[in-house]
User: Fold this.
Amino acid sequence: MANLLVTGGAGFIGTNFVYYWLDRRADDRVVALDALTYAGNRASLVAAEEQDNFRFVKGDIRDEAAMAQLLREEKIDTIVNFAAESHVDRSIVGPDAFIETNVIGTHNLLKAAKTVWLDGDDAPATHRFHHISTDEVYGALGATDPAFREDTPYAPNSPYAASKAASDHLVRAYHHTYGLQVSTSNCSNNYGPFHFPEKLIPLMIVNALTGKPLPIYGDGSNIRDWLYVEDHCRGIELVLEKGVIGETYNIGGRNEWRNIEIVREICLLIDKAFATDPGLAKRFPDAPAAAGETTSSLITMVKDRPGHDWRYAVDTTRITDELGFAPAESFESGLKKTIAWMFENETWWRAVMDGSYRAWIDSQYVAR
Ligand code: NAD
Ligand code: TYD
Assistant:
């Protein structure tokens, strides 16, 4: 039995992780902590909040005293730190928030963990600080470069990636200097339910359904490795269960796609869904597919992102060989599930986009 603190628990991956854990670990207690920035949505946790072994706390990882108090109050023995500013484009126009949360916030959370777990009298018998990071800390690859390994030198290019790299180093230092029991995982691009529609995949789906342009940065040739979010949660679970303290693990899908190819694939899947379900045309009349036109007619090439990393690819040999990790979802099955989720949760994405979560919460209570 463990007492987990999931920071950033109302964000995209944090929410999925909360449900993943509650579904599998009925004996554990899960406390989700989130500052509820624009990206955090308490309504996403509405089903979790009905469970006795779950609690939501609105709070900020930068608040060291509050974090220490929460660790004591809830007898937390495991922190999974998702809390972060996470969008590269936002980090380009406003990097300060990324330094504040990703660097100072992670450091303050580490300090709180050290105070309670190492320096206090009421520490749990064992503890773990698991830090969630990204493959973007390794920089960008050329077409023939080998994929990022755990020992690839850090070379972050965006303010987002640099702030995540700094936080990874702090986590490592708290292990080596103070003996905090840490682990870190660096994952590739996730997609799936509860994904905020500012990132590529959910934005393309929402724009396709509402008849808006599908903006492709540059020439669309940039490559990312994509992993269904539940597979990321499975990887984190393996690291928590069997990972070596002080180590880092890359998590990825061995699933590299050019942006333009992904967007074309999403367009095709949406066209097919409209062709087989006539109800969709009534629900989404502004979608080109509702009029029998191709969704790809919305594709619009736009100005490139400054400093746009060309390719990310992740070598997952360590987590595969040492911990037995394997993604369960193919890209096609994962994309189909994601699009189906967006069809079913129209109220959620409309509400997160205009900030009115209430309607979605109400629809969830009615549905149960
Ligand atoms: P997200 O932006 O959807 O969620 C981040 C959450 O953190 C939000 O709910 C936000 O309210 C919360 N938050 C922000 N500042 C906070 C603070 N100071 N205190 C407490 N909570 C705060 O991001 P995500 O996509 O779910 O990413 C989660 C983590 O996974 C991040 O650390 C990110 O770097 C990492 N990651 C993401 C991806 C991806 O593809 N999305 C891939 C690899 C790693
Ligand atoms: P994004 O989802 O922002 O993730 P990241 O930048 O962290 O990889 O973007 C994924 C890729 O898609 C990236 O190469 C930028 C590109 N992109 C577009 O072409 N158009 C868009 O509207 C967005 C949001 C991203």
Observations:
- DSSP finds 13 helices and twelve strands in the chain.
- Residues 7-8, 10-14, 34-37, 39-40, 60-62, 82-86, 101, 105, 132, 134, 164, 187, 189-190, 196 surround nicotinamide-adenine-dinucleotide (ligand 1) (CB under 6 Å).
